[in-house]
């Protein structure tokens, strides 16, 4: 999450530190967590400089932990991606997410507890994975593919789709007077979102305000660059999901 | 804690971000916390760049929160304070703490719960403050006074006394083969530590491994510079608490 936030400015992540707060330290569990952090740092070409492990048995319940992270990146002032050049007619390209990523878990927990579903139940239409596995799919790290496009000068704006979904994360990178028109049929919504919507009886608006719905990173680019990016994407999946229009906010169609 | 850690390298804190994780957001409470952070940033001449507020009602108990912070500082490579020049006969100077600072609270909670004491009880020998007030005394931020001495070229090593107390924090800045001899009668131990020791029936060794015992920052300097610092300290309290000796670890006498 940290490094995906950083690249939205066109910056290259430099280093990362974690904060791991738990009851009494479970070394095996901590090792698994650190292994994941190391993998994330590798994927984002970022140094794991250190971190803080806090044991608070009087505060955290046994076996539970909270984890946060902090990263610093670097970009030349003249090369900051800030959305200022975005204009009507520009194109929104979406990079697929692996699932819910790291947002919306309070709602996920409510759906699980209200529906009585088990994490070990098979997730419908997903092949053979369980709901638990789908929920724990690691967040996609977009650093390398995004920076490649940024360095090629093809990116006007970047939105990391986190809490608030498209609705909150896309418009805030636009100049005033511009909004987004998003074609919700233009990408494949992962099965976990369909399952959450159905089991939690959640309306589209709330789904879109809470979850990424299958798109974890949005690039705003000119129509010409968009064509260029899409025709050179090779085996990568990149969706053309909408365009920049007069107005404000996000219109879903 | 973050900026006190940073100055131990002789670095100047640049910016700070917080992570505030809670159940449902209590705006009044969050405002008080942020106010404290702002005050800490002012005291350390550090910019509060931003932060992350995480609402996790399914995880944190109502009214509870965890708080962590992250800071970045800067120092020229050639001016890093790393303890390499420390030698036998060098002097340890101690800056007073305001109390337990931010370490040892698991033990504090155990003492409170085992002894049945109330946070509203008066703390003996403290004038008129309660145990709760003594425990909540803000951590002293040593940034400005430490950097002043660092910039004057008078500091060989710095130890921020956190979890592990003198025992863990002082020796690790020494070159191999050197230890510390600390005169435990050389400074005033704040009443909260005497109270914790008595109510928790905690031996000296555990007290010293857990708490700062009244000294929050230790400077290692030459005998000449020590004399100079002590004679120019004005109204500030700085204790001469010990010296560097052959050996390892910390000897208390």
UniProtKB/TrEMBL annotation, chains A, B:
InterPro entries: PurM-like_C_dom, PurM-like_C_sf, PurM-like_N, PurM-like_N_sf, PurM_cligase
Chain ranges of the PurM-like C-terminal domain: 87-250
Biochemical pathway: Purine metabolism; IMP biosynthesis via de novo pathway; 5-amino-1-(5-phospho-D-ribosyl)imidazole from N(2)-formyl-N(1)-(5-phospho-D-ribosyl)glycinamide: step 2/2
Sorted UniProt keywords: ATP-binding, Ligase, Nucleotide-binding
Enzyme Commission number, as recorded: 6.3.3.1
Residue ranges of every copy of the PurM-like N-terminal domain listed in the record: 1-75
Enzyme class: ligase
Superkingdom of the source species: Eukaryota
Record Pfam families: AIRS, AIRS_C
GO cellular component: cytosol
GO MF assignments: ATP binding; phosphoribosylamine-glycine ligase activity; phosphoribosylformylglycinamidine cyclo-ligase activity
Protein name (record): phosphoribosylformylglycinamidine cyclo-ligase
Species this protein is from: Ceratopteris richardii (Triangle waterfern)
